[in-house]
Each structure stands twice: as C-alpha cells, then as structure tokens.
Amino acid sequence: MFRCPAGATIARSLLFTAFSICALCIVCFAPAAQAGNTIERLDDAALRNADRDTANWLSHGRTYSEQRFSPLNQINDRNIRKLQLAWEFKTGQTRGHEATPIVADGVMYFTGAWSVIFAVNAVTGEMIWKHDPEVPKETAQKACCDVVNRGVAAYRERIYSATLDGRLLALDATTGKLEWEVVTVDRSKPYTVTGAPRIVKGKVIIGNGGAELGVRGYFSAYHATTGELVWRTYTVPGDPAAGFESEAMEKAAQTWSGGEWWKVGGGGTAWDSMAYDPELDLLYVGTGNGSPWSRHERSPGGGDNLYLSSILAVDPDDGVIQWHYQTTPGDTWDFTATQHMILADFTIEGETRKVIMQAPKNGFFYVLDRTDGTLVSAEKYVTVTWADRVDPETGRPVEVPGQDFKDGLAVVKPTPFGGHNWQPMSFSPKTGLVYIPAQEVLGVYRRGDDYEYRPGQWNTGTDFNVYSLLTRHVATGHLLAWDPIQQKEIWRHPYAMPWNGGTLATAGNLVFQGTADGRFLAFNAETGKQLWEDHAGTGVIAAPVTFLADGKQYVSIVAGWGGAFALAGGEAAKVSNVGTAGRVLTFALVDDSAPSNDAIEELLTAEGALQDGERLFHKYCAVCHGASGVAGGTSIPDLRRTTVPYSAFDVIVRQGTLATEGMPGFGQYLTPEGTRLIKDYLEHQATRPGAP
Ligand code: CA
C-alpha cells in the first residue's frame, strides 16, 4: 500500500497502472515544486523563464531581453478610460526618482532618492519595510546627475541594490534586513553607482559612473550568496607602463594616442544598461563617454579610444569581452552608449536575425546582430548634426567636419542630454515597434581654456559657460514609435519639454509614459492616439511596470522630478504647477457597475467616528468644495490643503468673514462642534491616497 501526502491510501499496483489518471498524484507531486513564494523560488531557471510569469515583474526590464513588454491585456485600448488611481505611496523624498520596480506576489520593491530601498504592498500601497543605507550626503558632489537610483534586483529570497557611494547590498526580501554589503569602488575616486544590478548565473553584475569628474570605467560580478568578487572587466586601458589586466585592454590601448588619459581615468563607465541572452550565454553591457569629454585633450593623437561609447558582449562566467561595437569612435560629445538595450528576433530579408537594439545619446538607432556584433542597420531617430550617416560597410559613423569643436565653437545635435537618455524604451512584439522617449535639445561645445586635470572637480575639457546659450533655445521631447526593421518613424506624440519618462508596452495595445510636466499617459500602441491621462503630482522620468495581484491587473509608476536635465537644464527644465514630492502611483480599472444598497451603507459607515463630520461636510460644503473634500480644479479652494487653524476656520465658516470673496456664513446651520467635526474630517481626507 502507498500513502499519498493528501491522505489517500492507494494499492501499489493501482498507483502504477493508473499513474497517469490518478488525480491525487497531482496533490502528491505539485506542492514540492510550488513551495515558497516567487522570490524564494526565483533561481536562474525562473529568471530565464520570466516571460512566462505574466503576473510578476521579476527583473529590471521584466525579462533578460529587457523588452519591457507585458503580455497582460486586462487593461486595454477598449477599457482604459476606466483606469483610476488605486493607491499612492509617498517616499518622503524630493530628489529625482528613476526606479523601475520589481513586483512579485503582490509585493513591490523599488528605490527612491539617496539609494533608499522600499518594499510595499502592491495592492494597498502600505509599506512593508524600508532600508536606508545612509549614504553620506556629501556624496552628491561626486554625482554628475542627481542622487538617483534605478532600482533593485531579486534572486533567491534576496533583494540586491547598489548605493550612490559605491556599495552593493543584499537584503532579506521578507524583512529588508541587511545580509551583506561590499564596497565596489575605490572611494578615493569620484565613483558613484546609480544603476540597477542584474543577476546572471548566480552572480550580481554592477557597474558605476563618474566619467564627468574622471574615473576609469569597469563592471564587476559578485557571488550572489557570499558577496565575493568573481570577476571585474575594465572598459578602458589604464597606464600602459603598469601593464594590462587583459588582452582586450592591451588591444584597446593601441587605440589611444598622445595623452595621459589614465591620470583622468579615461571614462567608459558602465552606469546603466545590460541585457542577457541565455541561449548565446552573452551578457551585454553599454559603456559611457570619455574622461575628459574632449578627445583633443584625452587622446590628441587620435584613435577610436576603445571601449568608450560601446556595446560590449561578455562571457558572464569570466567577464571576458567576446565582441564589441563602438557607436561613437573617439567620442568627444559625451555620447554614451549606456542607453537601454533590447534583444529581439527578427526576420529581415527572409533571414532570422537575433538582434540587439539601442538608441544611444548620439542620435542613431542601431540594430546589431547580437551573436557577433555586426551592424544590421543604423539610422537617425532624432536630428543629428555630428555625423552624416553610419557607413553600412564599415559600421562606422561618417563625421561632419568641424563638429568636433577642435578649433572654436560647435553647435551640435544631439547633446550630452542625448537624443534619448537612460529613460528606458520598450518594444512590443505585437506591433513590432520600439517606443523611445526621444528629445531635441541643442548643444554648444567649446574646448576649455588651459585644460588641466583637477581631482574632485568636473574634468570634461569643455567650456560649460557656453551652456548658458542652451537656455535661449527651445528644447522639446516626444514619444517616438520606431519601426526597427524599416528603420523609420511610424508615429510620434509631441511634448513641450524634453526629459520625459521611460515607456511600457502591453498586449492590451497600449503604451504608457509619464511626462516631465507631471502627467501619466496611455496611447494606442499601433496608432499613437492618446487614450488616457492622469496627473502624477510631480515630473515623471522613470518607466512604468504592470503586474497582476489576486488576478487583477495594475499599472505602477515611480514619480519624482530630477536627474541630469532637471538639475542642469535651466529655463528649459522649469516645470510649473507640479510638486517635487516623490511617490509611487498605482492604477487599476474601476468597477463601474452600480454598487448594492448594502455596499453603499457600508461605505457610509466605514469612516467610524468621522462619519458625523463627513455627513455635515456633504450636507453643507460638498456642493461647492467637492465630494469627499476633493475640489474639482476650479477657483474654489480644495479644503484638504487649508492651513488655517481650527479657530480661524470656525470664524470663516460660521461668521462669514470671507462672504465678500464668495464664501457665505453658515452660522444659522452649524455649531462650533459641527465645524470642529468638519475640520477633523478634512484633515483626515488630507492624509488619504491621492491627497494634494
Ligand atoms: Ca556622461
């Protein structure tokens, strides 16, 4: 006899003869495979198969391909008008918020400013834990582009995150307790870390930034369990006199000439984008600009200066570079290739191509064969003045003379802010389109007088005073739907400002994007028609995510105006009528069927002791000041915002001291006790989600 864990006793012979039809066997074997929650079970196989887990958002770009496409379609182009705010979580911080959340089993993990990590209930917005790594505030001086962070990684019961001051942390996913931390940078140098770590084959991969002040770029792999360094790959050569760490660095050094780049660091920092192809077993890493920016100072003898502004494909086991593609050889404009990279398989001219796509700062949209890095195609996706085209034979850009500001001033597009910056793009396999947060900003470059490396300061070798010219020109942005096979624009939605948020594409034929001017929008993914809009309360730069909880689809966006352009953009970066308070906004479809009488009764009594104040407010105030205290955007004040103390409030309401302004007195209806209850109710409403 055989005893099944479910309690059934089955004759052995029966078990074997009837194995395939014994329903109880499902009970016997299924629980072992399903033990624990999603993050406990999140191993290498689960990360490789993240695309099949449609309910959760398990890695930075949802999957290793970093497509930022969700197969969810409960929310779609037909019902989007019913999308409403479900909850809002305020981080209590005011600097730039750039994180893409990780969501698993109804728990959302994300970072705010200053590398602070939060875990919140993804259905209610209630905080579960918060970990403040207490980054010293003076680290801000080393940060080129605000004290931002782009999010966490999840793996085997842990949450991994990096800090502005260069640490990599492993936290218990359930409690937020610190399990280990390692310092990943030389803290005597101006390194910062703002990127989200990625997990590949049991290793946590993290890069760093700092090429504006002057550092040598690299990225590292740490053992996910122990925090031990497994490998480190430099992206630019050090001092040739000190020898080279690898063959790649020895070869790269032959492409630098005449300068002492190692004193400044050389740059090439890998501060954001990565992707992974498990089949080819290649990890892709984007690298940044040179240190200093000006190649005339950095490498006056010329040369490509490998591996600046490049996509590198490395073996994730040892970090050895397998191939490279340099988007801007000899970069002199801060044209990083750290922008988001997307993997997809296309049929091009009858042939299946495994491609990697990037829209780096330099203004060209690249499609490369990701097996060996050969160029498939490259076309301008924004206005580009520094190069005519990318030669399809050589894969190299054809530079326009004079644009490299060797002698005098050069007016250039794009700029250090990029035709597209770190704000992630997305790709929909359904429409075949890439959705790019594109922008048009004019750049003015001139070499700095008497360039000399100054430790601890910005070392770009360019004259920042000419930047003041920027503010006199209109800078704009647009959401660009780009066909990567035809290499052409399909549609665009224009914005008055650049520096808008990252994008999300869904199987509901939708594209979501937040904007610099504090809105959150949804578009028909095929046509570009705007279908929906809500207010985010602050400028949005991060990218949205979507997930299921209890079978219901939600869309979330981390909002918080900041980052490089918001800080440095001057007049062009000024946003009016939105706040600076960082927050997460989560939206869901409202059930617009009529509620039952019982449900209405329950709603009316749910406020407990406040119900009297609520009843009085709705009897005397709500017809002008709005249901539930929410004013309807007219000139009549939203009373949740009122800062007058109770005594003054009572005088205004009962004695009519503002009657000449249109606020009559209600003394014949309300007692002091009544105005006290109304004031308590409004204060309560001011603490609720969605309050101004
Ligand atoms: Ca840079």
Task: Summarize, please.
The protein has about 700 residues and is an alpha+beta fold.
Number of strands: 41
CATH superfamily of the largest domain: Quinoprotein alcohol dehydrogenase-like superfamily
Roughly what percent helix? 10-25%
Computed Rg = 28 Å
Low-confidence stretches: 1-33
Helix/sheet category: alpha+beta
What CATH architecture of the largest domain would you give? 8 Propeller
CATH T-level fold name of the largest domain: Methanol Dehydrogenase, Chain A
Main pleated-sheet profile = 5 strands, mixed
- pLDDT average, as an integer? 92
Percent in strands:
25-35%
Distance between the termini: 67 Å
CATH class division of the largest domain: Mainly Beta
**What count of domains describes the coordinates?**
2
Ligand catalogue: calcium ion
Strand adjacency order, main sheet: 3-35-36-37-38
Instruction: Identify the overall geometry.
Output: globular
- Number of helices in the DSSP assignment: 12
Description:
The protein has 692 residues and is an alpha+beta fold. It has two domains: 2-30 and 606-686, Cytochrome c-like domain (Cytochrome Bc1 Complex, Chain D, domain 2, Orthogonal Bundle); 37-589, Quinoprotein alcohol dehydrogenase-like superfamily (Methanol Dehydrogenase, Chain A, 8 Propeller), CATH 2.140.10.10. Helix content is 13%, strand content 29%. Strand 37 (519-524) and strand 38 (530-535) form a beta hairpin. Mean pLDDT is 92; it is low at 1-33. Bound molecules: calcium ion.
